[in-house]
Structure formats: structure tokens, C-alpha cells
Design brief:
The protein is α+β, with helices and mostly antiparallel strands. It has 2 domains: about 15-70, Arc Repressor Mutant, subunit A, CATH 1.10.10.10; about 85-235, GAF domain (Beta-Lactamase, 2-Layer Sandwich), CATH 3.30.450.40. About 40% of the residues lie in helices and about 25% in strands. It has 7 helices and 9 strands, in the order H-E-H-H-E-E-H-H-E-E-E-H-E-E-E-H. A 6-stranded antiparallel β-sheet has the order 6-5-4-9-8-7. A 3-stranded antiparallel β-sheet has the order 1-3-2. Strand 8 and strand 9 form a beta hairpin. The longest helix has 22 residues, at about 215-235. It starts with 14 loop residues before the first helix and ends in a 6-residue tail after the last helix.
């Protein structure tokens, strides 16, 4: 054993268990050095370094200088788990209903920094050329969901993506319109807040079928309002008798 290194006596033999120890150490601080992690877990520095670098390559951790922090992949898994565990009985039926009413692909996404993380997708079979998946991260400025959410975060009542709204002017409805992929148009709207993160909803359809007008935007806004109301109820503190 090298001078200054912890003994491996009493540590779990399983590599998976040791990786779990390493990840758990970040519960106490958002950024830790190699020495911090080794001291917290009791794993020798050489072994700790190998595991940290392996987790960086996997995207579970990120390294900035001499410090490590949780990576995007873990954040994505956490967001998906939060959504699926808390809302899977209520929200997906509303998304399916929106797809049934509009005939378009429905996305639910959360604003994560400068990106939108897709939490759910319904109706992909209606547009097989729209290559999006649950768990995808899309630059917010390239997403109608992202533009609607960014406008909400900035306190603006206006959210327009693209230059072809049906009225030919600026929409002050909190709805974003634009081209989301080659041959596809999208309508996005803010839903509400999911544990402090902004949540949005969109429909995407062929450019010759999805129109930038109230008739197409109304079902999206109604679904967003219903989901938003549920989020408000789910996050409200319970009153005890």
C-alpha cells in the first residue's frame, strides 16, 4: 500500500458496489477532488482515480480541472425517474389524448440548462421520419418547447419560434411556433414547474398538416393546462387534520 492511501480492508469487493460508494460521495458536495472521494469512500487513491475516470468516460461524472461532479447522464436518469415515478398514472393518458385529438407527435420536455430533455414521446408511429427519443437532449434555442420555456423564464408573454405564425404578427399567448425538423412544424407551450425545473409540451406534424392557428394550438394549451394543474396539486403541501 502506498503512503497516504487507505486500506481496502472492509471495503466491498464488488466493482459495482465500489462505484456506488463513489457516486454516493457526491451527495455531500456538488464537486469533489480525487482526494476528497478517496477519503470519503475509504477506497485507495489509485483505485478511486480509475473509477472516477471510467465514470467520466461513461458520462456519469464530469471533470473540471482537479474536481469531479455529477454528469449529464445521471441528471437525465434522475429527471426521467422523477417523472415516471410521480406522474406515470396521470400525465401519459393526457399526452395520448392530445395525440388522439391532433394526430401529431407529442413531446413532453424539461428545461435543463441550455437544453431540453425529453421526458416522454407519444405517437411516434405517426411520423417515423421524426427521429426523437425519450432521453434526448435538444438545444433549447432549436426546440419549440425550449423557446416557450425560455420566454417564460425571462418573464416574457411572447414566445415565437420562426417567422411564419398564421396571423403574420407576434403572438402574445405563451405559445411557440416553428420548424422543428425538416418538413415538420411544431407548436410548444409551457406546462409548469417540476421541482423547480420548467416543463413544456409540444406537438409536431408535417408542415402541410400542422397550421399555426388557434385551432391547432388550443388542444396543446388545454393539455398543458391540465398537466400544469395536476403538477400544482401534486406539489401542494398536504394539510393534516
Amino acid at each position: 500500500m502506498r503512503n497516504g492511501e487507505a486500506s481496502e480492508r472492509g471495503l466491498p469487493a464488488s466493482t459495482l458496489d465500489r462505484l456506488s460508494l463513489v457516486l454516493d460521495s457526491f451527495r455531500s458536495a456538488p464537486r469533489l477532488s480525487l482526494t476528497d472521494v478517496s477519503r470519503c469512500t475509504g477506497i485507495p487513491r489509485t483505485s478511486t482515480y480509475r473509477m472516477l475516470e471510467h465514470l467520466v468516460r461513461m458520462g456519469w461524472l464530469r471533470r473540471r480541472g482537479v474536481e469531479y461532479g455529477l454528469g449529464d447522464k445521471l441528471a437525465e436518469i434522475g429527471a426521467l425517474s422523477l417523472y415516471q415515478n410521480r406522474f406515470d398514472r396521470v400525465v401519459p393518458p393526457l399526452l395520448r389524448e392530445l395525440h388522439s385529438v391532433t394526430g401529431h407527435v407529442v413531446h413532453l420536455g424539461v428545461l435543463d440548462g441550455t437544453h431540453v430533455l425529453y421526458l416522454d414521446k407519444v405517437g411516434g408511429g405517426a411520423a417515423p421520419d421524426l427521429h426523437t427519443r425519450i432521453g434526448d437532449r435538444i438545444p433549447a434555442q432549436s426546440s419549440t418547447i425550449g423557446k416557450a420555456l425560455l420566454a417564460a423564464v425571462r418573464g416574457s408573454a411572447t414566445a415565437v419560434a420562426g417567422d411564419r405564425p398564421a396571423s403574420g404578427g407576434t403572438h402574445r399567448s405563451g405559445v411557440a411556433y416553428g420548424t422543428c425538423a425538416a418538413g415538420f412544424e411544431c407548436i410548444g407551450v409551457r406546462v409548469g414547474s417540476l421541482d423547480g425545473a420548467e416543463l413544456g409540451l409540444s406537438v409536431s406534424g408535417p408542415a402541410n398538416r400542422l397550421k399555426f392557428d388557434h385551432r391547432h394550438a388550443a388542444p396543446v394549451r388545454m393539455a398543458a393546462a391540465a398537466i400544469g394543474q395536476y403538477l400544482d396539486l401534486a406539489s401542494a403541501p398536504r394539510q393534516t387534520a
